Amino acid sequence: MASAFSPAEVLMNKGKRGAAAYIRDQYCNPISSDARQQQINELLDTLLSPGKAIDDWETIDWCKWLMAGGRTPDEFSNTVRLYDNATTCGLVWTPNFVAYRCRTCGISPCMALCQECFKKGNHYRHDFNMFLSQAGGACDCGDTSVMKEIGFCDRHGPKAAVDKSPAPLDLMCVAEAMMPRMILRLIHHLRDNCKVSAPDFRVAIQDADAYLTMLLDLNHMGALMRHVMTSALTSPQKYRGLMDPANSSGMTEYDRYCQESHGIYQDAIKSLPNPEPPDEYKDCPSLQEDLVHTTFLEELMFWTVAYEFPQKLVCLLLNMLPDPDYKEALTRAFVLHYSRIAMMLERSNDPDTLSNRVVHVSVQLFSNERLALRMVNQLKLLHVMVISLKYMMSKILVENTLHTPNKNFHFVVDCGRPVMKEHCYWPLVSDLNNVLSHKPVAVQFLSDDTLLEMWFDFLSMFQGMNVNQREMGAHVEFEPTTYYAAFSAELEASAYPMWALVSHLRGPESISVSRRALSFCLTALQDWLDAIGFTSPDVCDALHVSFHIPLHRYFAVFMCEVVRQQGVTLQELLPPTDMLHLLMMHPLRVQVALYEILNGLWVRNGLQIKGQAMTYIQCNFCNSMVDADLYLLQICAMKLQPDIFLNTVIDKFHIKEWLSLFTVRSRQNILLIGEHDTAMMESCLIFLATLISVRTNLGLTDSEVSHLEMVTLLCMGDKTHSQLMDLMPERCGTTPNRDFEPVLAEVAQYKAPNLEASGTMQQGMYGPKPKVWEELYDPLYVLLRAVHRRDYQVSMDRYTEYVKSTKLKSSSTLWPPFRNPAPVSPDYDDPRIVLKSRVFHAMVFVILYKAVNDHNISEHIVALLIYLLEMAVITSDIPKKSANPLCPYTGSISCAANDADFSNWYETDSLIENLKTVIPRAKLVHSSSEYNLEINSDWEITSDITENSLMLNDDFDVEIGEPSEVWDLELLGEPDNDHRNTTAPMDTGSLPALPTNETLNEWDLTIVPADEVPNDNIEDDELPAHQRALPPTVEESMALVPDTHSPRVLSMTEPLRFSRMPQRGTSNPTASNEVDLLQVLFPRLGAAGVSTTEIVPSTSHCHQRIVNRESQASVSLN
Question: Zn finger regions (UBR-type) covering which residues (predicted)?
């Protein structure tokens, strides 16, 4: 009589333990393997039916008992663990797990250790840290490709499996037969639930939680069970046998289910497209439009991507990484789906979580150099990464608004889009940085022309992004927040890969790839300049700025490293002079904008613009931004004509009008207002002093830079050890300073913790040693690194306190102790060469003249100028035939100069010759655009700069307001066509055609009608003599305050006649528009028979006469 029960039901009636023992016995008998497999397949068809819930507890328990083969599941698990011969740990953790990283033992910067392996390893006196994992990770203990053997614990490493005995052959036979069917059940579940919406993805994974837990428990049994699982996942034969639609007849219900499941799978593949690759890479397996899976692992990776990397599924995949064959197979499957991962990141509703999950996987795969290189060679991994990044950014491009928008056909990323604000690109650039940390991969990147071209095209999308337009009218109503996204993108997607690449350019063997990178960078820069219409340095850029010029910074950093590490001369790498001049303009504009923001010119743009200035010089960004910009400007200062360089700086800092000797201002300079012009003059001097003195990239060793950075931090305030570690500038993504502790011990002294009166413990701090103040404190470098302006003032206060406690007994206000710069590397010219310029000498002349005659010039402007002048003297060329280099005035050299035309004030660039040159008068050359109004009155410059602070604003929180009398156009009632951003109406008035008598008395002016100006010799004119007061004390001179109520005209006690001067006439070039300076700046020059008065101190006032004759004015000053 035929049995009413199926074979599967007969086995199940034996009970779990009995059925498991029977199945194991059948595998030990010499019957055919097909019969054995048929028996277990029939049983598994019932247990793992897709019609049953995947989390059915009874099914999961049956699977555990069947694999145990007659033992209990716990007994089986303990037996399998006895034969665990794993040489690596592989413990996988999720976010917020505490792990360790040892820089001494690490080969890859991404290595990590679990707590148990770290404590059992020997890391005594190693450079390690404990960290809270953000994305999750896995323990690398035992992996020789990631860390050195000295850091392995006693349970892991190549020697750990030497004494392990082999396992019995029948121990894992049932598990090997069951595993493909168990994986198939998981895949069927993922297929069946793939059509639901994104929120329901989590429900589908939660339904499979118990099933995934069972698979994870099997993996935790050790290497023996892990090998069974990985063999099933990576076998093409097993995948084809169970998944090929051709193997199903379609007759049974299960066959029909399998065909329907295959259709769902095909539709799912089409719903996850990849970016369109270039034609030459369409045949690359990792970029093909149609995905073809050949193993369970590849399809499981596809569903991992489609379900946005579920945490438990990710952990299952990663827990099997200690198997080397599986690790390579998983890496291959990951790369095959990599371009689709980029698409998922872009359209995800939770990109932050997805990003962490992606990096959780990729960091384990790409940290292995051998494996990463194989993926680069076989699957074009680098091309896939760059193409994916370009595609992601190409979908959010907008027109660039730098300079003239209608002539600008360049496109940049929109920083307000979710891709930028949510950092969707972060996993891709993180993986790129990881693979570029391997030298062979980096060399391949730099050797591939197509890759370099695509990469610099990608960087061009960031070049000039997030343009800031200076608000000239009302305060901005809603402050944008896009600058966070812009700075993060340049740091992560541009600077990190840049430092990863240049870190490998260490010897002459890399010269060819370095040159290739620089060549492609220059080509990209030229294309960008053409695209934005910037073909001349004269293009206006005064009211807008972008802090983001990654192409300039790539060029600067690569050039710096090639010169320093590979022995290539600077001249071999530089572009033509006209191109170099163009390259100078945008870094210079960023520097000028920085000082404009500090001085309050951008106050109407709100706090966000101050945030940009702070971020630009912040410790995580400074090496990649401000230092790179400064280095490129130093190169320009060395290689461009000094006159051209300085004239450009003067123009971009908007100080040309301030440097005019003509006291009547046009007031049509919309770029500056009354209280800011002196501030920008001081900022220009700070910039020049920084430019000529900083040696960070011009010759300092890494150790010397570490000393300088550490000293700078300590001078701004005592700090804890962790604060110093965090604030030390880093080259993004590279290994931190290995000499941190020796430098700290050399320059800092530890202050032990103190118990305060309240009972709280004050943390131990590090402060500078006395020798730091005497030998190392550099105020200019502190200014360069001070995120808050108050930090500089704190350093000066601390310096003053130290000096007064040791040597100085006076209460005088100290000038900053500007340092002589360190020697420049032989590869470079000294940037102080820019001071060997007649333009600079004329600037010095004007500022010193104003310092003598205008008490609004601060002590600190004078201090900066004297420092620059000292540097000019040190580097000046001394004539060989001169017995006395600083020879006295001989009366043989004299020339008149056009006001503010500094290139023509002197005939040479020799400081010695120009010191002997007398400037007796300056022509007032008026441009029609700036001086088209009648001269009505003088304007006195006001300044709120204190004698105690070099900075104009001690903190970013200080906002400088604008007085109502700022704009001359407003007072005149004239329309301002250039004032495009003004939205609020302002009161207007008018000025009288000529100043009143009261004004004349206040400003010490005498208006002489044109017809009363005598044409005879000027020696007939009598001017009042100046009575010089006693020199003030040091304390008094430091605190001179303008006294606007004092009389401006001195009594004429003695008539004084000057030597004969040329007659006024149209043929004489000095006949009109001249300021007579001879008698003011050169007293008692008797060698030429010229007699003048002494210099008038700033507390005295001189008598002036203005002759107004149509558009010409003759101004004489004593």
Answer: 87-158
Most confident of 38-42, 470-474, 1091-1095: 470-474
Q: How many residues does the chain have?
A: 1118
474-504 CB burial, b ≥16 within 10 A, e <16? eebeeeeebbbbbbbbbbbbbbbbbbbbbbb
What is the pLDDT averaged over residues 877-888? Answer: 58
Instruction: Return the pLDDT at 889.
Output: 52
Q: Tell me how far apart the alpha carbons of residues 532 and 33 are, in angstroms, rounded to a whole number.
A: 73
The pLDDT, as a whole number, for residue 888 is 54
* Whether 973 contacts 809, CB under 8 Å: no
Amino acid identity at 1065: G
613-631 mean pLDDT:
95
Query: How would DSSP label each residue in 207-232?
Result: HTHHHHHHHHHHHTT-HHHHHHHHHH
At residue 751, the 3 state secondary structure works out as strand
Smallest Cα–Cα separation from 1023: which of 938, 1098, 1117?
Answer: 1117
Q: Which residue in this structure is represented by tokens 């890479």?
A: 281
As beta bridge partners, residue 1112 has 1109
Q: Please, what is the Cα angle at 186 between 52 and 352, to 5 degrees?
A: 125
User: Which residue's structure tokens are 């029977």?
Assistant: 22
pLDDT tops 60 at residue 505: yes
Pair type for strands 921-923 and 897-898: parallel
- The three-state secondary structure class of 19 is helix
Helix (H, G, I), strand (E, B) or coil at 1112: strand
**Cβ contact 526:458 at 8 Å:** no
pTM over 0.85: no
Q: Is the pLDDT of residue 858 over 80?
A: yes
pLDDT of residue 406: 82
Domains and CATH numbers, the chain: 92-151 (2.10.110.30), 438-533+547-578+595-625 (no CATH), 702-730+739-806 (1.10.10), 831-923 (no CATH), 997-1116 (no CATH)
Three-state DSSP class for residue 350: coil
Residue 933 scores a pLDDT above 60: no
Hey, how many other C-beta atoms are within 10 angstroms of the C-beta on 1010? 11
pLDDT at residue 989 in the model: 34
Residue 766 β-bridge partners: 719, 750
Residues 766 and 718 sit within 8 Å (Cβ to Cβ): yes
In sequence order, the β-bridge partners of residue 1008 are 1107
Q: Is the pLDDT of residue 747 over 90?
A: yes
SS3 860: helix
Report the C-alpha gap between 693 and 780 in whole angstroms: 8
- Distance (Å, whole) CA 582 – CA 534: 8
**Residues 1080, 920: contact at Cβ < 8 Å?**
no
pLDDT, mean of residues 892-896? 57
Return the bridge partners of 1021, or none.
Answer: none
High-pLDDT (> 90) share of the chain, %: 54
Residue 121 to residue 156: CA distance in whole angstroms: 10
Q: Give Rg (Cα) of the chain.
A: 39
Longest dimension (CA), the chain: 149
* 3-state SS, one letter per residue, for 639-665: HCCHHHHHHHHHHHCCCCCCCCCCCCC
Q: What angle do CA 491, 494, 498 make, to 5 degrees?
A: 110
Cβ neighbours of residue 741 under 8 Å, at least 6 residues apart?
none
pLDDT per position as a tens digit, 511-565:
999 999 999 999 999 999 999 999 898 887 788 999 999 999 999 999 999 999 9
Residue 1117 has pLDDT above 50, yes or no: no
**Intra-chain end-to-end CA distance of the chain, in Å:** 135
Q: Is 1109 helix (H, G, I), strand (E, B) or coil?
A: strand
Q: Are 1065 and 999 in contact (CB under 8 A)?
A: no
